[in-house]
Amino acid sequence: MKGKGGALDRRSSARWRLLLLCAFSFGLGMLFTNRFWTAPNTNNHIMSQHRRQDQELQLVSEDCNTKRKHGEHKDIMGEVTRTHEAIQLLDKSISTLQMELAAKRSTLELVRSGVPVTSETSQSRKKAFVVVGVNTAFSSRKRRDSVRETWMPQGEKLLQLEEQKGIVIRFTIGHSATSNSILDKAIDAEDAQHHDFLRLDHVEGYHELSAKTKIFFSTAVGIWDADFFVKVDDDVHVNLGMLATTLARHKAKPRTYIGCMKSGPVLADKNLKYHEPEAWKFGEDGNKYFRHATGQIYAISKDLATYISINQPILHKYANEDVSLGSWFIGLEVNHIDERNMCCGTPPDCEWKGQAGNICVASFDWSCSGICKSVERLKDVHARCGEGDSSVWSDLI
Prior knowledge:
Blueprint: H1 2-112, H2 119-122, E1 126-135, H3 141-148, H4 156-165, E2 167-175, H5 182-194, E3 197-203, H6 209-223, E4 224-233, E5 237-238, H7 240-248, E6 256-262, E7 292-301, H8 302-311, H9 321-328, E8 335-338, H10 349-355, E9 362-363, H11 374-385
Parallel strand pairs: 1-2, 1-4, 2-3, 6-8
Antiparallel strand pairs: 4-7, 5-9, 6-7
Main location: Golgi
Enzyme class: transferase
Family: Belongs to the glycosyltransferase 31 family.
C-alpha cells in the first residue's frame, strides 16, 4: 500500500511542476511580447513627436523668413516710391526752367526782329488756364465779325473772361510781305477797336501755315503761363465752357495733345489741293500719314508748347499744318487724346448731340474744312448748338 501511495505523490508533484512550468512560460511569453512589441510603438510615438516639432520649427522659420522678406520688400518699395517722387520733382523743376527760358527767348526774338514789344511781352508771363488762338487772315474781316457776334465775348466781357476764368482769346495774324502796307494798317485799326489780336512775327500766306503755327505757340508761351494752348480756325464754332471743361479733365497729364485724331492719305498728285511735296518720305503711293489731330481745332499742354518754342528752328514744316504739328511730337512721350466732341458736324448733328446732353466743343463741316459759308451760317449754328452764354461763367470751370 505504501508503494502505491509514493507513486501517486510523485505523479501529483510532476503535474504541479508541469503546471508551474506552463504558467512560467506563459508569463515569460507575455513579458517577451510586451517588451518587443510595445517598445517599437513607443519609439514611433517619440519619432512622430520629433517630426512634428521639426515641422513646427520649419514653419516658424519659414514664417520669419517670409516676414523678413516682406519687410525688405516694403523697404525696397518705399525707396522706389521716394526715388520716383524725387525724379518727378526734378523733372518738374527742369520743365519750369525750360519754360522760363522759352519765355525769355521768345521775347528776345521779338525784340531782335523789330516787332514792337507790348506791355504783355515786356512784363512777366501772365497766368492763364488756356490761350485760344483764332487763326485768321487779312481777307477774313467778315469771319472775325461773325465770331465776335457769336461765341467770342467782346469788350469788358473778354477781359473778365481772362481775369476770372483764365480763358484768353486772340485772333492770330502776322504781317504782309510789304512793310506797313494797307493790309497791316487795316488790322491795326481793327485791333484798336476790339483789342483782340495777337500779332505774330510772320509773313502771312496760305502755304506758310506750318510756320505760323510754330510762331503762334512760341509767341504765346512767351506771354502767358497757361496750362493749355489751343489753335482754332475762324470758320469753326466753339463752345468755350465745354472746351474748358474738356481740357480740365486732362490737366494733370503731362505732354498732352488733344483733338480729333485722324490718318489721311498722303497725296502725291500735284494737282490735288492738299498735295504733299515730300510724299516720298512717307513710303510708297497709297500710304497714310501718322495719327495727328485735324487742323480745325486742337490743344496742346504748355510743356509741348514750350518744346515747340525751344526747338522752333529745327522743326520741319510739311505742306499741311496739322501734319507738321503731329510730326513734331513723333518720338516723344506724348499723350494723344482722341476727343471726338471737338469735331461735331453742323446742325442737325451738333443739335441732336446737345439735346442728348453731349454738348460739342467744336462744330464744322468736313467737306469745307470748316463751316461752309460760315459768315452766313455761324449765327444759326450758334443758336442751335451753342451751350448758352452763361455756361462759360459756371463755377464748375
